[in-house]
What we know:
This protein has 175 residues and is mainly beta. It has one domain: Lipocalin (Beta Barrel), CATH 2.40.128.110. It has one helix at 62-69, and strands spanning 2-6, 12-19, 23-29, 32-38, 47-53, 57-58, 81-91, 96-105, 108-123, 129-140, 159-173.
Amino acid sequence: MATYKIDAAHSEIGFKIKHLVISTVSGGFSKFDATMEAGQADFTDASISFEADVNSISTNNEQRDGHLKGADFFDAEKYPKITFSSTSIEKEGDNEYVLHGDLTIRDVTKNITLHVEHGGGIIDPWGHSREGFELAGKISRKEFGLKWNALTEAGGAVVGDDVRLAINIEMVKQA
């Protein structure tokens, strides 16, 4: 069984959400950790755990980030981590997988599905084995207790419910 750790300097944990129904706001987390264990070269037996520090959220707007960290959304003081633990993985094509796992935001855990594309593996100039992955999925923020919203004058939602996840990671095999 091989253990892989995320290379945070070469990874991005991002999301996108609709604002005022007409545009999209992007954000991400700058502090996170992930571990993958796999015995099979094709990763079909992989077990993955991930956590993000809620206080590291950034949408390039300090006031909005403060609101997201507060009780209306993530309540970072009470729930400082977002976690994911895989439950199963299915190979769908040469480099494509469907990853199932339990995502916990605040005090709510839901099983979600992520689509995974394996970008390949290399041995880096320092002799370390690296694997690249792109993950995508969609969750409902309201299902995780992130229910704050306001309505525009026309009755539209200020913040959409669907959150699209866009994750690019590089995993390094541990010696």
